[in-house]
Amino acid sequence: MSVIHKSKTLQQALWRHSETIPDKTFVIYKHQSYSFRAWQEWVDRIAGGFRALGVQAGEPVLLAMENCPEVYATLTALSLFGALPVAVNPLLKVSELQFMVDDLACSVAVADRASRSALTEIAASSGRLRHLVVHESADTSGGVQDPLGSSLSPSGCQTLPFSDLVNRTQAYDIVTDEAGPAIVLYNATASGKPMATLVTQALLVQSWRGLQESLDLTSNEVCISALPNYHIFSIVAEYGQMLWLGGTLVLHDHFQPNTALQHLAQYRGSWMCGVPAMFSVFADIAERTGVDLRAFRYGVIGGAPVDAALLKRWEDLTGGTLLQAYGSTEVAVATLERPNQPRSPGSAGTCLPGCQLRIVDEDGAEVAAGVVGEILIRLAAAQAHYWHRPQAEQAAFRDGWLQMGDLGRLDADGNLYVVGRKKTMILYGGENIYPSEVEPVLQAYPGVAEAVLLGIPTPIKGEEPIVCVRVDPSQTVDAEALLHYAHTLLADYKVPRRVLFMPEFPRAAGGSVRRYELLLQVLQSPEFKARTKSTRLSDPSVRPQSVSPQENHELGDCP
User: Fold this and answer.
1) C-alpha distances in angstroms, 456 versus 326, 491, 524, 539?
2) Closest CA to 416 of 341, 326, 330
3) If you average pLDDT over every residue of the chain, what do you get?
4) Homologous superfamily of 426-536 in CATH?
5) Is-contact 21 245, C-beta < 8 A?
6) Which residues of the chain have pLDDT under 50?
7) pLDDT tens digits for range 75-121
8) Apex CA 389: angle with CA 386 and CA 390, to 5°?
9) For the chain, what are the domain ranges?
10) Which CATH number fits domain 36-175: 3.40.50.1220, 3.40.50.1000, 3.40.50.980, 3.90.78.10?
């Protein structure tokens, strides 16, 4: 039977478990393991180390790291005294990380091998960073390697190893404000620039309690984790959920399907979260190897369209259930399928406790069941906030209701079906891509007169990004060279997978591109169906009036 405790913050849950189940294993990573007591003591030392660096309550600290114990312990430690851990993708390019450092006015960052070079360059060029903490790697024996010593750059930025940080200590005042921020995550936006979202302690606790109550989760759960730490899905449903429950987290630095599946069997994993592409690969391997996955109970799946056949395959392999969900950085997990209720194909389930959902028309009036409209969500918990973006926050929230930017409908039982997006965001393999942050980069390339990014539906990964390019008649553009250029300026997942050259695009009367019409024109063209790396479409005559969006649902936003 699940025991619902009354902790109001991440830290209170950790203290509770370090006192009641101190020796129970909390985190397993490669050859390392941490009990709840050891984790709490380590978190305390890390907090003291950052205070010794001068980090204050309310100050943002950039965490650009792959999954490892250090990044999760650090985000917990910083929120202990009210600092703001900002988890970001360590594979972002220099210009993308530079924007975040400037946007946050950030003076302290933590890097690993993937991000160290970029952040070192930023520290040298901007003078913004005063401390760069570097966690280098873990060797094969499980020992942490931090070979560099403390040093001071000409720009005045001190670089020091993570191991040096935890050896420093300074007393700090503990902050336990449930309405205060627990973590800061960046959302991609339609403006082309990512926006920092402050996720509150109360919002996370509401999701943890909701998942626990809805699924009768207990401290016996073992989560096999493979989601990135800079995504709300990981914070809510993996690390945070296991810390809340007193469960065990088996951590991986990145997605390694064979290793994750091996650990699912070895540690008798009962809980896993991810996107459909992950579970599809797992199912392929499990069917081939015959590995025993019968300890599995539940998984939360989202981030791309979910095929009913995949849900059935997984149930046959494990005896457990994959449950579809819907949410975002601002609301965490808002809706979820329930295992004790009839399943509705294509549904993302009903609201978790503390969440309300409405479907409204263009005038904001609530529509009847079965009618498609915009999805609005309101939470009982303290809502998320946008970092120094009061106008964006005011525009996003309508009388306390967050406008999700997605179109959906409710059935008579309150099940949510997401049928499309009002915005132009592309959802690819669980990552969100906005045309407005990719198109200007491509249009700056010599010879490109206009570039339009589209998402092409795929069975597993959602929408594959491709770009339609109109070339200046006086010049030529090579597709491979254009994609190579894009790779130097954009994170890899944002780079289009194909280039389609077109003489013209379908347009509205005002001259704007009709994206839906362009999408269908592309899908119907024989040239596109040939699936070459670059395609030249010569006939722009196919101009349908509309295209029906594919039913899908998503969970989370992050650049």
Assistant:
1) 21, 19, 12, 19
2) 326
3) 87
4) ANL, C-terminal domain (3.30.300.30)
5) no
6) 138-147, 538-559
7) 999 999 999 999 999 999 999 999 999 999 999 999 999 999 999 99
8) 100
9) 36-175, 426-536
10) 3.40.50.980
pLDDT confidence of residue 422: 73
CA atoms within 13 A on the CB side of 511: 1
| 275, 429 contact by CB (below 8 A) | yes
CA distance 327 to 554: 7
Confirm whether pTM is higher than 0.90: no
Distance CA 76, CA 541 (A): 56
**436-484, pLDDT tens digit by residue?**
789 889 989 999 988 999 999 887 788 899 999 999 888 999 999 999 9
Task: Determine contact, residues 255/230, Cβ cutoff 8 Å.
Answer: no
Q: Whose CA is closest to 82, among 161, 200, 169, 246?
A: 200
Question: With contact defined as beta carbons under 8 Å apart, do 554 and 302 qualify?
Answer: yes
Residues 4, 329: Cα–Cα separation, whole Å: 24
Rg of the chain in Å (alpha carbons)? 24
The string of DSSP letters for 100-125 reads HHHHHT--EEEE-TTTHHHHHHHHHH
Residue (of 404, 455, 407) closest to 433 by Cα position: 455
DSSP β-bridge partners for residue 301? 274, 324
The contacts of residue 268 (CB under 8 Å, 6+ apart) are 222, 295
DSSP strands (E only) in 309-461: 321-328, 332-336, 350-351, 355-360, 373-379, 385-386, 397-398, 401-410, 416-421, 426-428, 431-433, 448-458
Of 313, 316, 332, 339, which Cα lies nearest the Cα of 324? 339
Give the pLDDT confidence score for residue 150 in this predicted structure. Answer: 64
Helix (H) or strand (E) holding 250: strand 248-251
Closest CA to 360 of 374, 370, 345: 374
Predicted pLDDT of residue 557: 41
279 closest CA partner among 296, 243, 253 = 296
Helix (H, G, I), strand (E, B) or coil at 80: helix
Reported as type and span, the H/E element at residue 272 is strand 271-274
> What 3-state DSSP class applies to 349?
coil
- Give the separation between CA 160 and CA 471, rounded to whole angstroms: 48
Distance, CA of 234 to CA of 218 (rounded, Å): 18
Q: How much is the pLDDT for 326?
A: 94
User: 233: Cβ–Cβ under 8 A, 6 or more apart, which residues?
Assistant: 227, 273, 300, 302, 303, 430, 555, 556
Q: Rounded to an integer, what distance in angstroms lies between the CA atom of residue 434 and that of residue 453?
A: 8
Q: Which H or E element spans position 197?
A: strand 195-200
